[in-house]
């Protein structure tokens, strides 16, 4: 084994951008994912889904302590929670948070395979039978060319950061490829004052052909 992989250090460009928009290319990544709809502040299912994702992620992280070391494993820090957000009914707009749709996810290291996922799922099912672990799916995503920035402060104030990103698109001959947006939660909202929260905001984009 080599030294511990710390995403804050090794993947700084992906997770700790500046507080102004920048262009970046995001590679293929592996994730545990759970999709749903509704107000994240009022839905018990939303909190449960987060619990499932973390339980699976830590089950893989702790495998060597359970007398099983996957091929290619090296010590690492569990990646942060992410969410891809949209609207269940675009016609209703975003004022009503019950209209939100989301896919929550936590990235997994490259060594993770379907076999390892099955082992982790069985571990969580035995240790935490109250969790609906089968809601989670394992797969890959590739954002590719993207614009991202670090948003500081409450989630409800993200519109100011999105305005900066919109201006960046105009100035750099870019356009969004989707109305969805990704959020990466660098701060734990349960332990951090809203004013101090750090959230990466990301749009997938393409260059406008003239």
Automatic annotation (TrEMBL):
Superkingdom assignment: Archaea
SUPFAM superfamilies: Probable bacterial effector-binding domain (SSF55136)
InterPro entries: GyrI-like, GyrI-like_CCH_Lin2189-like, Reg_factor_effector_dom_sf
Sequence ranges assigned to domain GyrI-like small molecule binding in this UniProt record: 20-196
Protein name, per record: GyrI-like domain-containing protein
Protein's organism: Methanocorpusculum petauri
